[in-house]
Amino acid sequence: MIRAFGMTGLQIVTDLEAIENDHGVELGLKPSKAKNRKASDYEQFEAGLRQEAARMSEFYEVFYCLENSIRRLVKDTMVEAEGADWWLSSRVHEDRVRKPAQQRHQKEVDSGITPRSFNLIDYTTFGELSQLITDNWDVFDPVFSSKTAVSNITNQLNLLRGPIAHCNPTDELEQDRLNLAVRSWFKLMS
Predict the structure, then answer these.
(1) What Å distances lie between residue 172 and 48, 90, 152, 176, CA to CA?
(2) Residue 84 C-alpha from the chain's centroid
(3) pTM exceeds 0.85 for this model
């Protein structure tokens, strides 16, 4: 009797897996991406909130890639113009960029958490990255087609970044704006 029960259960699971594969649905038989998360209490959050988080994670990923690619572009361009010690040069404004980045780094060190980086550019905000580009336009002019456009697009991206970075949902119009702004950013590059 137990053997028959086990075989019936196995047949049901096999049939359900076939339904998942044939119809592209997830019935919860296999561990989903959400189940691979390290937060042990993740499943205790309501399903709607988890679905919203999964939808918003796509936009976080886009912004993560964008911001870090801009950070890399700034660093590489400045190293080429000023050398490896560019961060300490007069090209980095002491009060608007360098000191705030140093303070953020020191705050992490003082809190006892593992610092995210030993490169202070990794502690710059999106706005500070934009400031580095526009303050050093003579170096970035060959990279971009317009200083005004860089300023306008980075301002728009910074506004769109807020809800994403602070875990708030955005509606479809803002998602379309983000996609358009990212495309505009890459179009600015000469």
Answers:
(1) 17, 42, 21, 6
(2) 26
(3) no
